[in-house]
Every structure is written in structure tokens, then in C-alpha cells.
Amino acid sequence: MKILVTGSAGRVGSFVARQLLGEGHRVRGFDLKPSGINSPEFDEVVGDFDDAAAAQRASNGVDAVLHLGAFMSWLPADRDRLYRANVDGTRIVLEAAAAAKVGRFVFASSGEVYPENKPEFQPVTEDHPARPLSPYGVTKLLGEELVKFQGRVSPMETVILRFSHTQNASELLDPTSFFSGPRFFLHPKIRQQEGFGNALAVEKLKALDIGEEALVLTRNENGRPFRMHITDTRDMAKGILLALTHAKAVGGIFNLGATEPVDFADILPAMAKKTGLPLVAVDLPGAGVWYHTSNARIRETLGFEPEWPITRMLDEAVSAWTRRQT
Ligand code: NAD
Prior knowledge:
This protein is of the alpha/beta class. It folds into two domains: 2-163, Rossmann fold (3-Layer(aba) Sandwich), CATH 3.40.50; 169-227 and 261-291 and 309-325, UDP-galactose 4-epimerase, domain 1 (Alpha-Beta Complex). It is built from eleven helices and 13 strands. It has helices at residues 11-22, 52-59, 79-99, 135-153, 180-184, 186-196, 199-206, 233-245, 264-275, 296-302, 310-325, and strands at residues 2-6, 26-31, 42-46, 64-67, 104-110, 157-163, 166-167, 215-219, 227-228, 231-232, 253-256, 262-263, 279-283. The strands form four sheets. The protein has a seven-stranded parallel beta sheet with strand order 3-2-1-4-5-6-11, with helices on both faces. Strands 7-10 form a two-stranded parallel sheet.
């Protein structure tokens, strides 16, 4: 098969592209940035999803599209770019794929369409109402609608995957990581909260600062530690490849992520023990993050079995962290 992987320079897209090449497929990338992938079976279009000519060049001659690229930002200043990349961009990539008579189109949506941070019931299944509370979540829901529309009006098969939060294991203990830095480390968290303009959170976090880097256990205003899914990129790739090939995936919407959520009350002390970093705890204003999303549908329908629970990811994260210290 020849497969177009959008977001081929990104975390998930670059991994999936390499995996497909390893399985003997031909792969084309499509991203704003070059992927750095070097293989005779790989070519790429460097361009913007909302550039129709680039999208058409990317789609021509491929059997399937994995639309894994998107712009992720929660900053108000990025709003226009967010909608252009994730809504207009997805529409244009979809239309190019349909015009090129692509067989199957797999779309990377997000748990933020529910939203997972404020669920009406748990575990969150695919039947939970989709009522996003962030502009990013809105762009993903609009993307889903565009995918469903194309699935109705063209013969192209479509699959929607609602992604869990996703990390490479090596990112978990990297204070410079876009997600894991502010999630687990005090100094990046202070900078993040300053960026969001959350003065009270900044004040509480700064009061814990002992001048050296520390891990931070985040709890809500009642002292309940955060809980959320964090899924390894390798498990996400397994689910994406099932969506690409499985007959029962067609027309489906599936939550894709780890089976169990990560309890910060468990993982932060384990991180501190394994790294020797100091651990502080903070109660931030608000209800906080505390969710469990069900992956039962993709397990039961497509046979998805994740292999990288957080404990296994953490072992690898500690090795990467130790290497960075020397
Ligand atoms: P990533 O940021 O590592 O990669 C996204 C890629 O898309 C980047 O290489 C970027 O250059 C490219 N891109 C962005 N805007 C573009 C545009 N307008 N035109 C062309 N290329 C563009 O993200 P990731 O972690 O690999 O995420 C993959 C997918 O999963 C995305 O669709 C994301 O929205 C979704 N998702 C990710 C998470 C997560 O926690 N990582 C959670 C839920 C959903």
C-alpha cells in the first residue's frame, strides 16, 4: 500500500511513518516541516494543509490517508492559525483525498471533544455528548463532522479516532517537553501558569520554589490529585494501524488510549523516588483534571491491546532522564 501520513514531522506521525516503512509499505509525508525520514520508499510534501495544490500533490496516487497532523495550542493568540490548520486544513486534505479516490481516511481527533476534563459521566465512552470547552476541542469536533460528511458523500471509507493524551516515554521526565514539562515540573509549570495569566496559581507555585528543579504533584482545590490518561506513542500507533486495515473500523468512532488512567498520587512519588528530585504538592483553584476514558470499543471491535502502561513508560523515562544528567 502507499499511505499518506500527515503530521509526518510530529510525534505520532513520524513514528507511524517509520513503522509503515518497516512493514514494507510506501509512505508519503505531508507536514509544514521536513520529517528527516530517509528511505527510498518515502517521499514528502512540505506544505500547509490549507494549501489545496499541496494537499492534491500529497493525495495523488495514495491508497489511504492517516490525517495525524494538526496544530495544538491553547493560547488565544493562536486562534486563527488553529482553525485554519485543523478545520480548513482538514476539509482541504479530505477533499483532495476524495478527489484522488483514496480508499480509507483515518482522522486523529481528541478526547477534548467530550471534554474529558469535565465529563458528565465516567468512564467516558464514545456515547458521551461531544461538548468541547476549548477552541482546540471545537476544531477537532468540526474536523470529525467534515470527515463524517465526506464519508456520506464519497465512497471513501472513514475512521475517527479520539486520541488520549499521548507522549513518547522519553518525554515524561523532560522538563523541556511541551506537555510533560509543565505537567510534572515546578519551574515549567510556573512559566505555563504565568502564560495563562493564572495569578493565584503562580503565587501558590512560587511559594513552593526552593530554587532548584522539583517535581510537582498537582491537586484540585479540595486536595484531590489529578488523574488522566497518558498513552505511549507506540500504543497509539498500534491503534492507528488497526484503523487503517481492519474491516470493522469503517465508519467507526473509537476512543484510542491506555486502558487505565494515571493517578498523579501514584506516579509523582514514583518519579521522585527514581530520579531523586524533590517533590512538592500544590492545590490549584478549580475542579482540576480527573477522568477515566473507556477504550472498550476499540479493544472489543478491533482487538486493540495496549502494551505500554505508565509504569513501563516510566522505566524508559528514567533511563532517558539519567542519560541527560551525564
Ligand atoms: P505534534 O505536534 O507532534 O505533530 C503535529 C504535526 O502537524 C507537526 O509536525 C506540525 O508541523 C504539523 N502541522 C501542524 N499544522 C500544520 C499545517 N497547517 N500544515 C501542515 N502540517 C501541520 O502532534 P502529535 O502529538 O503527533 O499529535 C498527532 C495528532 O494527535 C494531532 O492531530 C493531535 O491534534 C492529536 N492529538 C494529540 C494528543 C497528544 O497528547 N499528543 C492528544 C489528543 C489528540
